[in-house]
Amino acid sequence: MDLLVVLVFAATYLGMALGRVPGLKLDRTGIALMAAVLLLATGRITVAGVGRAIDAPTLLLLFALMIVSAQFQAAGFYRYAAERVTAAEGGAVRLLALTVAVAGSLSALLANDIVVFAMAPVLARGARDRGLDARPYLIALAGAANAGSAITVIGNPQNILIGQAGGLDFLDFLVVCGPPGGVALLVVFAVVRATWRDALSVSAPAAAASPAPPDAAQTAKGGLAVVALVAVFLSPLPREVGALAVAALLLASRRMASRDMIGAVDWHLLVLFAGLFVVTAAFSATGLSAEGAAWLAGHGLLPGRVTVMAPLMLAASNGIGNVPAVILLLSVWPDLDAGTLYGVALLSTLAGNLFIVGSLANIIVVERAATAGVRLGFRDHARSGVPMTLISMAAAALWLLVTGQMRL
Description:
The chain is mainly α. The chain is built from 20 helices and no strands. The protein has one domain. Helix 5 packs antiparallel against helix 6. It is globular, with a radius of gyration of 21 Å.
């Protein structure tokens, strides 16, 4: 056993849990990068070993999907969608339903982090301008983005990683995860409506102006790219190669600078992935993860049991974040069957709604809302996040049991 590797691994995931290093402006991405550099500098892993540790196909696929989502952002589509929601006629509850429907549907096919990044400040300002409390709409935005992203294998970063690790089929994933994801969207709406009843009981005056439409040609171009992506996932072509081809075609534009499109990519998330791949690979080489998996199996704590996976994902996703949790889990159990992988994708994503720190989408909503002058606190989110998570995860667990994907 290499003590330094174990210490670096432990310190890295402690940093994931804390979110930063006390006294330093060093966030999760910086922690993962520094840990990987330390392992490289001390010879615990070689440059060639770094190349083997990093799952290049997953990172390339994630990059390509972010380019596609950036196309919609650059076209003004996300802004327009948020403005249409806040400008819609009807009461406060109808606006809440529209928020859930729009955020959930967009996040099923596009990177949910970019969706909430673009929509959160527009939604916050639009609700406030109509004399409404913006907080329940922001909570619904984050909750629906997480729930909607659980529906497809391209909805969020952890699903992409899981799909690549298990070679999961696009349509099979949709069949298994679509129904509980849809139920989770209904749960988000019902819980936010119940927990923010007073704020949603006020009348919503008409919006002052109609939203400006997005660039029609560029939005249509993005739509064609999504269709092409789905076709890639249904074809025998390597997903990352096909997705990169689609992204490259989007960059060949006469109106949108490739620099701006590439700049919209969440490079911090890609670096976080790369750093954690290196750290977990070095730790796996010590043999401790295999020993841990054997110990768990010997005590009946198997990953295919929903009574094991649900509480594990709930704790890990809200302790170290659902992306680091999935990377760590796949390093401990690298050969999970398809049913268990569906369960991991569903449960880790839905668990992210519990607290603000449970998913990157939640954190983005809080930070972007602050730029629009709306403060969304930990308690504000938890009053809805806790019940919506527990109910949606219970429904998902029941579905996984009934369909035979996982066992009790």
